[in-house]
Structure formats: structure tokens, C-alpha cells
């Protein structure tokens, strides 16, 4: 089969590899119908997540049709159409039972490596480095899905692939970002990043009762989506002298009740700290550039909530923890507990409350993927979300005029 | 009864007696390697012990075990295989203490690991958490502490083996399988990729967990991958450079 492989920092290649096989009795093999490139794939592309090995198959947002199931699989059968959550959970451990699916005890074969970095290991992820299990990802024609009775959600309504594909990661991730923000009716919510997760977080914030949602980014096409599809008041930080001031002024001098960092470890900014982070990360003095998080900690109101769906990998320098303490804020974060959200969010899509496909800007074939990673990283071509048909060789459909 | 009700409402009454933490054994001593592992397994002590105490199941969750056969009331014959060289190691072990659902102590009585002892204890964990399992290993390692250090770098140190085996037991009991990515597709690994694989112990076979992934397949003679020495050579060079740097830093201080 053809698969998108990480071959080193900044080096993505389409390779012909052997087809996946059933390894454990709870596995299923899928023929991938649609897959996508995630913003967090750029952390791998840029080499900021350790323990990638050349040859690793990328991709953790995918859906497909069941081709084969292991002997212990009860709920799925050949021919079922499923969307697969990017976190792999066993469904039986202490954490799964507590709905903390992304912290599952039993799915990471390299748990020992993760324990060295983080103390304890969370669940494994598809195509997201060996510290997270080293599972081959779904930017491929076929993929092996372990614990197939626990994760994948069947799509039986005949709804378009593109409407449900984002259940695999970004919609639940944005939704959990909003849920973690502990929004009370009428609250002011600020979202950093108008990428797919930020856009879903903004829309979800309204679903959870927010009064007003502000979205901060620098790309006009993304801010346009936040305005047109998510009802947000948008702030272009490149044209704003101070984000803290902007949010203070917009919230009657109080500050947003909840702030959502949908940016993560590779933030950009125009302030002094952004330059500081860029220099420190380049010199390997810190692994992450928490530029957005710094603004979040300054902006959030006293006693407010900070929710972090953006990915962080390691060590942050000179983060103003005093601001967090001094204002008595609550912080909630982590990988998405995907399994908890699949059914309720599928229902929201099927009932027509939201059509997640609004953010798709590019439809591509598998051979176009390496080039698109570059475009995705450089945010060229008005890119907002890329969907791949792994069985189409090549051909880039742009949904917006460039 | 009235006193109990108050206690339930308000918590315990003080002063309340606490205790002092006593570290479990870990480290090297007189050429022996001491290690321990602790896991909470979401099942009753009976359920955990039932899987633990069946010798024929040991190859399904312990790394590198080919077979364990009873040779007497309290003795077993073990066959293990070194994943690096494919060499088989045989020895006998005897059970020193067995309290069903509570404790199991066994000692190796011949072969290269002679006098190594494994102690497992099983305790009921309150609040529905299942069973607290503690494993303490006292290994006699051929090649001593140097071999343990090398093992840490390249394959499994005995210390890590204790941790991984107990983790596998938990995985098997809780989720009916042991997670594995062995044999999945990948693009060309190259020298650096192979070296990383080795460092993370990913070239070690995962125990099969259930009968579906039969041991015979995993350990069939013809399936043993040829030992690639490139990463080892690279690793040795890296280790020497690392040691030299460490020594240098110590001297500077």
C-alpha cells in the first residue's frame, strides 16, 4: 500500500510499504476512505516531538471501511463505515472507566519511554511518535486499528465522509477545549488560534452557553471563517497593539471568563516574548514556544479558567506562573478524551446543528501530501484544512480562489 | 453507632497516627540487581492470582519466556530465549512460599541466573481500585552490574524486565491483550531509525497476551531477525563519548 512517511525533520515522503495485518485479536484493518493533516502533525514535521523514527507512517485523523477484524472483535464487521478516534483506549482500565480515555493505562507499548519523560504514560496515539506508542498512522491506504470494539464509531446514516471525518480529532478536541473552559451562561470566551481546533472551540463555546466569543489569529482567511461560521468577534494580533488590552476593552475591563489556547507549542507572535521564545527554542533552551499561553495567562480574568487543547511537548521557560496564582485561575488541559464525545457530537452533526466540513480548503491525492505539508506549515494558498483521498494519486482541488 | 455516624460525616478524629515511607529495594548490591515494580490491577486478587499462578500462561505475558512446565509439586522447568542472540536458556525454579491470592515467592535453583528470587504480593485495593500487586526481584545477573548497565542501554535490563512483566500482567488482566506494534508496516527505517528502535527496546518481541498470537510463531527459529550490529556499534561509540563527557565535566568541577 502507499503511505505517508516521516523521513526526518521537514522530510515527508510517500512510500510503498506492506499492508497492515491483524496483530492482536481486538484489531481491525480499515481501508481508509478519507484522512486529513492535523495542525499537530506540524510539530512532528518540524521535529519538535521527540522519538520519531524515520519510516513512521503519519496521520491520526482518518476514517474508513472495515476490511478485516480480529477474532475478539464483536461490534464491527467487514463493510462497516467507521470514524476512528486518534487516541487508543482499552476501555477497561481505571482511567477509561472514569471517562479519561486519553489517559488509558494499557495501550502504549512504549509506556516506559513515556514514563521517563512525563512520570506516567497516557494512552497511545496513531502516528504520533514512539513516546505515544509508535502505532502506524492513517495517512495511508490501509491502517490497523487496535481495540476496534472500543474506539471506532460506526456511521450508519449515509452522511458524507467529509462531514464526519473531523470526529477523529479536531471537532472533539475543540469541543473538549470549550468544555474544559467551564463556561457559564453568558460568559466571555477568548480563543487563541483560528485553526480547525480553535474554530471548533469557538463554535462549541456558543453551544455550551457562551455570551460572546473572541478569536485571535493573524490569517485573514481563518479569521473570516471564525466570523462567518462561528459567530466570533475576531482580533488580528498583527494589527493589534496589545491582546491583553483588546480583551480588557472588549469585556468591560474584566477580562475573558475563560481563555482557550488552541495554538500550543509552536506559537507565533509580534511581542517581545515571541522573539524570546523563538530564540530559546532555536537554541534548544526550551522545547516549546508558549507565546500564546503567556498572553492567555495575562488576559484571563481573576478566578477565570484557562483551557489548553493546543499540544505542548516539554519544557517552557519564564512562564509567568505568578499571574496564574495571583489571579487564582483554574487550568484544564490534555489530549482529548475522544471516546466520550464521539456519540454526542455525531448526533449534533447528523441533526444538522453543525457541518464541520466548512473549514476544508483543499482536497488532495496521496502524492500531493509532501508538498501540502510545506504549504500547511507556511500557511500559504489560504489553507485552512486539508483532506486526503489516499486512493487518489494526485490532483489538488482548492475550494477557495487563491 | 452515633460516634461512627459522626466520623462518616466529618472524617476521622485527630490526633491520627501516620506512618513512615520505607523504600522498596532497588539498585545493585554485591553483584546482584534488586528491582521492584508496583501496579494496581482492576480485578480482584483472586482473578489476578488465577492468571498469575498458571505456569502455562507465563509465556503469554512474561517477556522472553518460551515455556514453563511443572516438574514436581513446587518445581518448574523454564525455557527462555534471549531476543538479541536467539539463544535458549534453561533452568529450574522452585516455589518457596505460596499463599493463594496473597503471596508467591520463587527462586531459580540452577542455570545462569541461579539464586535469583522473585517475590510477588497481592493486596486488595480499596475504593474499587482492584488489586495492588508488588513485584520484588533479586537477580543474580551473569556479567553482573556491567551487564545490567549494558542491558539498560540496548535491550532490557533485569530491572526494567520486572517493571515490564508486571505491566504486561496488568494489560492482560484488564484488557485481555498486550499492546504491540510488532510487525506493523513502516517506511525504510535507515540507520538512525533502527538505532532509535533498539534504544527504546522496540526490537524485543511483545509477549502474545492471548493464544491468538501463539508463542511458536513469535519464537519460530526461522523468524528470528538477523542481529544487526550497526546500531550497537553506533551505540557503543555514543556511550563512550557520553562517558568521556561525563568524566570531563566531573573533572572540571
Topology of this structure?
The complex is a heterodimer of chains A (402) and B (253).
Chain A: E1 2-6, E2 12-16, E3 28-37, H1 41-45, E4 56-57, E5 61-69, E6 81-84, E7 87-88, H2 94-97, H3 111-118, E8 124-125, E9 142-145, E10 153-154, H4 161-164, H5 170-180, E11 188-192, H6 196-207, E12 212-217, H7 220-230, E13 233-236, H8 243-250, E14 258-261, H9 272-282, H10 291-299, E15 305-308, H11 321-326, E16 330-333, H12 338-350, E17 362-365, H13 369-378, E18 386-389, E19 397-398
Parallel strand pairs in A: 11-12, 11-14, 12-13, 14-15, 15-16, 17-18
Antiparallel strand pairs in A: 1-2, 1-4, 3-5, 3-9, 3-18, 5-6, 6-10, 7-8, 17-19
Helix pairs in contact in A: 5-6, 5-12, 6-7, 8-10
Chain B: H1 2-10, E1 27-29, E2 32-41, H2 45-52, H3 58-61, E3 65-70, E4 75-81, E5 88-99, E6 103-108, E7 117-125, E8 130-140, H4 144-154, H5 158-175, H6 190-199, H7 215-219, H8 230-252
Antiparallel strand pairs in B: 1-2, 2-8, 3-4, 4-5, 5-6, 6-7, 7-8
Helix pairs in contact in B: 6-8
Summarize this structure briefly.
Chain A has 402 residues and is an alpha/beta fold.
Polypeptide structure, described:
The complex is a heterodimer of chains A (402) and B (253). Chain A is α/β, with parallel strands linked by helices and 402 residues long. Chain A has two domains: 2-169 and 336-398, Quinone Oxidoreductase, Chain A, domain 1; 174-333, NAD(P)-binding Rossmann-like Domain (Rossmann fold). Chain A is 28% helix and 20% strand. Chain A has 13 helices and 19 strands. Chain A has helices spanning 41-45, 94-97, 111-118, 161-164, 170-180, 196-207, 220-230, 243-250, 272-282, 291-299, 321-326, 338-350, 369-378, and strands at 2-6, 12-16, 28-37, 56-57, 61-69, 81-84, 87-88, 124-125, 142-145, 153-154, 188-192, 212-217, 233-236, 258-261, 305-308, 330-333, 362-365, 386-389, 397-398. In chain A, helix 11 links the parallel strand 15 (305-308) and strand 16 (330-333). In chain A, helix 5 crosses helix 6, helix 6 packs parallel to helix 7 and helix 8 (243-250) runs parallel beside helix 10 (291-299). In chain B, helix 6 packs across helix 8. The N and C termini of chain B lie far apart (66 Å). Mean pLDDT of chain B is 82; it is low at 214-227. Classes of the chains: A alpha/beta (402), B alpha+beta (253).
Amino acid at each position: 500500500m502507499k503511505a505517508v512517511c516521516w523521513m526526518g525533520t521537514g522530510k515527508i515522503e510517500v512510500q510503498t510499504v506492506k499492508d497492515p495485518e491483524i496483530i492482536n485479536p481486538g484489531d481491525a484493518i480499515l481501508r481508509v476512505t478519507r484522512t486529513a493533516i492535523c495542525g499537530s502533525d506540524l510539530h512532528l514535521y518540524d521535529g519538535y516531538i521527540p522519538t520519531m523514527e524515520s519510516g513512521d507512517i503519519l496521520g491520526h485523523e482518518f476514517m474508513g471501511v472495515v476490511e478485516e477484524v480480529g477474532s475478539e472483535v464483536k461490534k464491527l464487521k467487514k463493510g462497516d463505515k467507521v470514524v476512528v478516534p486518534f487516541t487508543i483506549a482499552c476501555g477497561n482500565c481505571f482511567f477509561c472507566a472514569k471517562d479519561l480515555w486519553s489517559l488509558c493505562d494499557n495501550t502504549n507499548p512504549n509506556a516506559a519511554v513515556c514514563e521517563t519523560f512525563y512520570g506516567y504514560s497516557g494512552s497511545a496515539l496513531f502516528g504520533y511518535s514512539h513516546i505515544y506508542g509508535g502505532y502506524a498512522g492513517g495517512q495511508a491506504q490501509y491502517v490497523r486499528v487496535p481495540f476496534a470494539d472500543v474506539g471506532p464509531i460506526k456511521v450508519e446514516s449515509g452522511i458524507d465522509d467529509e462531514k464526519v471525518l473531523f470526529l477523529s480529532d479536531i471537532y472533539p478536541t475543540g469541543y473538549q477545549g470549550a468544555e474544559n473552559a467551564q463556561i457559564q451562561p453568558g460568559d466571555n470566551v477568548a480563543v487563541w488560534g483560528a485553526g480547525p481546533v480553535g474554530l471548533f472551540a469557538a463554535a462549541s463555546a456558543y453551544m455550551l452557553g457562551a455570551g460572546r466569543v473572541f478569536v485571535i489569529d493573524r490569517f485573514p482567511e481563518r479569521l473570516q471563517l471564525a466570523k462567518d461560521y462561528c459567530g466570533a468577534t475576531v482580533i488580528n494580533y498583527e494589527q493589534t497593539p496589545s491582546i491583553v488590552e483588546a480583551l480588557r476593552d472588549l469585556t468591560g475591563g474584566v477580562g475573558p471568563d475563560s481563555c482557550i489556547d488552541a495554538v500550543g507549542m509552536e506559537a507565533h507572535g509580534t511581542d517581545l516574548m515571541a522573539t524570546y521564545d523563538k530564540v530559546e527554542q532555536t537554541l534548544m533552551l526550551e522545547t516549546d514556544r508558549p507565546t500564546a499561553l503567556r498572553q492567555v495567562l495575562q488576559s484571563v480574568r481573576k478566578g477565570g479558567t484557562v483551557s489548553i487543547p493546543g499540544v505542548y511537548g516539554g519544557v517552557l521557560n519564564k512562564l509567568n506562573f505568578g499571574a496564574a496564582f495571583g489571579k487564582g485561575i483554574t487550568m484544564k488541559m490534555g489530549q482529548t478524551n475522544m471516546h466520550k464525545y464521539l456519540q454526542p457530537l455525531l448526533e449534533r452533526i447528523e441533526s444538522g446543528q453543525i457541518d464541520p466540513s466548512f473549514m476544508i480548503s483543499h482536497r488532495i491525492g496521496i502524492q500531493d501530501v509532501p508538498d501540502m505539508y510545506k504549504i500547511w506549515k507556511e500557511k500559504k494558498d489560504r489553507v485552512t484544512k486539508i483532506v486526503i483521498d489516499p486512493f487518489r494519486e494526485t490532483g489538488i482541488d482548492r475550494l477557495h480562489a487563491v | 453507632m452515633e460516634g461512627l455516624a459522626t466520623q462518616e460525616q466529618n472524617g476521622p478524629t485527630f490526633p491520627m497516627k501516620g506512618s513512615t515511607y520505607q523504600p522498596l529495594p532497588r539498585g545493585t548490591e554485591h553483584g546482584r540487581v534488586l528491582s521492584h515494580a508496583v501496579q494496581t490491577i482492576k480485578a480482584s486478587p483472586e482473578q489476578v492470582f488465577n492468571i498469575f499462578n498458571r505456569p502455562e500462561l507465563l509465556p503469554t505475558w512474561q517477556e522472553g519466556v518460551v515455556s514453563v512446565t511443572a516438574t514436581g509439586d513446587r518445581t518448574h522447568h523454564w525455557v527462555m530465549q534471549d531476543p538479541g542472540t536467539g539463544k535458549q536458556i534453561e533452568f529450574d525454579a522452585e516455589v518457596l512460599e505460596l499463599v493463594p491470592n496473597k503471596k508467591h515467592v520463587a527462586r531459580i535453583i540452577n542455570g545462569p541466573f541461579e539464586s535469583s528470587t522473585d517475590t510477588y504480593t497481592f493486596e486488595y485495593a480499596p475504593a474499587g481500585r482492584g488489586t495492588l500487586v508488588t513485584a520484588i526481584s533479586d537477580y543474580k545477573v551473569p556479567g553482573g552490574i556491567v551487564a545490567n548497565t549494558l542491558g539498560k542501554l540496548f535491550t532490557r535490563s533485569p530491572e526494567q524486565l520486572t517493571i515490564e512483566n508486571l505491566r504486561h500482567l496488568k494489560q492482560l488482566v484488564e484488557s485481555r491483550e498486550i499492546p504491540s506494534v510488532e510487525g506493523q508496516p513502516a517506511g525504510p527505517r535507515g540507520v538512525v531509525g533502527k538505532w532509535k528502535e533498539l534504544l527504546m527496546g522496540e526490537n524485543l518481541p511483545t509477549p502474545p497476551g492471548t493464544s491468538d498470537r501463539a508463542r511458536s510463531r513469535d519464537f519460530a527459529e526461522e523468524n528470528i531477525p538477523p542481529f544487526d550490529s550497526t546500531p550497537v556499534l553506533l551505540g557503543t561509540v555514543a556511550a563512550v563519548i557520553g562517558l568521556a563527557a561525563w568524566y570531563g565535566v566531573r573533572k572540571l568541577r
